[in-house]
Amino acid sequence: MAQLLEVTNLRTEFKTAAGTIRAVDGVDLSVGKGETLGIVGESGCGKSITSLSIMQLLPKGLGKVAAGEVRFNGENMLDFSERKMRSIRGNEMAMIFQEPMTSLNPVFKIGKQIAESARYHHGVSKHKAKDMAVDMLTKVGIPRPEKVAASYPHELSGGMRQRVMIAMAMVCNPKLLIADEPTTALDVTIQAQILDLMRELQKSEGTSILMITHDLGVVAEMCDRVVIMYAGQVVEETDVKTLFKDPKHPYTQSLLASLPQLNSDQERLASIPGQVPNPLDMPQGCRFAPRCQYAKEICRAEAPELTEVEPGHKSRCLLQQEGYHEYTA
Ligand code: SF4
Ligand code: MG
Predict the structure, then answer these.
(1) Bridge partners, 128 (sequence order)
(2) Which end of the chain is more exposed for a tag (fewer CB within 10 A), N or C?
(3) Cβ-based burial of 62 (10 A; exposed 0-12, middle 13-18, buried ≥19)
(4) Ligand 1: which residues within 6 Å by Cβ?
(5) Boundaries of each ABC transporter domain copy (predicted)?
(6) Greater model confidence, 89 or 226
């Protein structure tokens, strides 16, 4: 599959009161045309920072991309001016977030906001933009689109607002849609509807999706391939089928084990013991060692590399690397 987005060795640093932290530490990932890639991990693993780095929307003065490449259609966007990036955002790439209220302007009517976006990106007349807005609201399954177009954001339910966000993103016909926990705040039924909608739009428009989520159910529904992140790094990468059938990394295995099993009496989610490491004080060896049930002496001394363990399947664990058993026999 031709790659639309190719991120290589991305490093993003943040200034904090206690010192500089490396929130993203050498991430590689790629998204093919029409493909959905999932980025999965617990909160604080660097998945949102990865997407903000790609969009160049890091908070000014606090976060910066310190190294790496973010190639979009073959061009390294890190070389682009802010002006060029502004035209890429929306036109070529759009983003939807968990809480649409933070991206919708509360004082403007919905129709006007979508129309503005359409005008800005397509350079069409006011009248044409208004039609495009209503069309898009229809496309995202909003009943009585004219009425919704004339409403303010606070007059809509959470699910409706999320549809509006998707309409706003899709009216620009982006090649890549970055969705950061787009359904986390919604109830299960609405969540399923929104995911269906995204899949339909992807099919009809050929959009690639980068889906950021902590929810493996969403991954199973939506993704073709997945990268699992832990403590700012990718620890596993594979296709979605293999992820559920044959996860290699102990962290991925514990994420899967924490899912409630069908046909079991287990009522509560098992959680993974321990905490994500403090980024100001990263473990020397494997970053997962403090929580890993297989950790050996060597794991605390040597940092594993992300290694291909089977064709198309990568894992960052000494267990799967040659010679490991000699150390620990
Ligand atoms: Fe666990 Fe060692 Fe593998 Fe890290 S390298 S995940 S500590 S077995
Ligand atoms: Mg996040």
Answers:
(1) none
(2) C
(3) exposed
(4) 250, 286, 288-289, 292, 294-295, 299, 304, 317-319
(5) 5-256
(6) 226
Sign for the CA dihedral angle at 283, 289, 257, 40 comes to positive
pTM: 0.90
Residue 122 has pLDDT above 70, yes or no: yes
Radius of gyration from C-alpha coordinates of the chain: 21
| CA 13 to ligand 1 center in whole angstroms | 25
Which pLDDT does position 329 carry in this prediction? 43
Domains in the chain: ranges and CATH: 3-92+174-260+275-328 (3.40.50.300)
Calculate the alpha carbon distances from 304 to 296, 318, 320 in Å. 13, 6, 10
Predicted-assembly ipTM surpassing the 0.85 threshold:
yes
Residue nearest to atom 6 of ligand 1 (CA): 317
For residue 184, the ligand closest to its alpha carbon is: 2
H-state helical runs in 92-171: 110-122, 126-139, 145-149, 158-170
> Side chain identity at 7, as an amino acid letter?
V
The C-alpha atoms of residue 322 and residue 155 are separated, in whole angstroms, by: 59
Ligand 2 centroid, distance to 275 Cα (angstroms): 17
Longest pairwise C-alpha distance within the chain:
74
Give the Å distances, CA to CA, from 79 to 51, 72, 212: 17, 11, 25
Q: Which two tokens stand for residue 142?
A: 């909003």
In the block, which residue shows the tokens 């129309």?
115
Q: For ligand 1, pick from 233, 292, 297 the residue to mutate: most ligand atoms within 8 Å of CB.
A: 292
